[in-house]
Amino acid sequence: MEFAFTEEQSELATTVRSLLAKRADSAAVRAAAASEAGYDEGLWQLLCEQIGVAALAIPEEHEGAGFSLFEALIVLEELGR
Fold it and tell me: What is the C-alpha separation between 76 and 56, in angstroms, rounded?
């Protein structure tokens, strides 16, 4: 079986990867993990506001982005790099 991302899925991966490259190097990840919140609140805000990751797989009728869990998986893969 052959598999390929759609153009939209590739753009999502590229966008998330680019944002993380700018904001989440090893030192930033360690600092965020050691913070009181345990994560980078500013980065999470950017991911939610600019990319919409918090509502990615929520149906549009519930004010989400209406994508599938697959697109959420793409974001999770980028977060795990």
Answer: 11
- Angstrom distance (rounded) from CA 48 to CA 23: 14
Six token digits for residue 35: 């913070």
* CB-CB contact of 47 with 19 (8 Å): yes
DSSP state of 5: -
Distance CA 54, CA 3 (A): 26
CA distance 23 to 28: 7
Contact assessment for residue 48 and residue 54, using Cβ atoms and an 8 Å cutoff = yes
Q: How far is CA 14 from the centre of its chain?
A: 10
Is pLDDT at 40 greater than 90 in this prediction? yes
pTM of the model: 0.84
Angle at 15 between CA 27 and CA 78, to 5 degrees: 55
